[in-house]
Amino acid sequence: MKEENKTRENERMYYLSEFSYHDGEYDVTFNIVDVDFFRQTVTVAISRCGQIKQDTFPLLRDKDSKLYFEYGLFYENKIQLEDFKHIEEK
């Protein structure tokens, strides 16, 4: 029960966090919609050149145990969850 509450708190910590990335052609903005630690997935809203789409990626860990997902045509870009910034509601 305690572990389940901690997992929910971690999921909420990332909710609607934002990260901007330049893919060489356009600025891409990611907003975390959901992090599921049990299924090891992250769902993000992706804004690129005026279009918004939602996608779910496998959640991975690097050698330093940092969480990330891979993005790009060939999944060549590592986007780390710790690079996301929480957006405060006004």
Describe this structure in words.
This protein is mostly beta strands and 90 residues long. The chain is built from one helix and seven strands. It has one helix spanning 2-14; strands at 18-22, 27-36, 41-48, 51-58, 60-61, 67-71, 77-80. Strands 1-2-3-4 form a four-stranded antiparallel sheet. β3 (41-48) and β4 (51-58) form a beta hairpin. It is globular, with a radius of gyration of 13 Å. The termini are far apart. The model is unreliable at 1-9 (pLDDT under 50).
List the keywords.
90 residues; mainly beta; three-stranded antiparallel β-sheet; 7 strands; 14% helix; 47% strand; globular
Helicity, as a percent range? 10-25%
Task: Name the poorly predicted regions.
Answer: 1-9
Number of helices: 1
The main sheet comes to: 4 strands, antiparallel
Amount of beta strand: over 45%
Q: What's the β-strand tally? A: 7
What is the radius of gyration computed over CA atoms, rounded to a whole number of angstroms? 13 Å
Distance between the termini: 33 Å
- Broad structural category: mainly beta
* Side-by-side strand order of the widest sheet: 1-2-3-4
User: Which series of helices and strands comes N to C?
Assistant: HEEEEEEE
Mean pLDDT: 83
The gross shape turns out to be globular
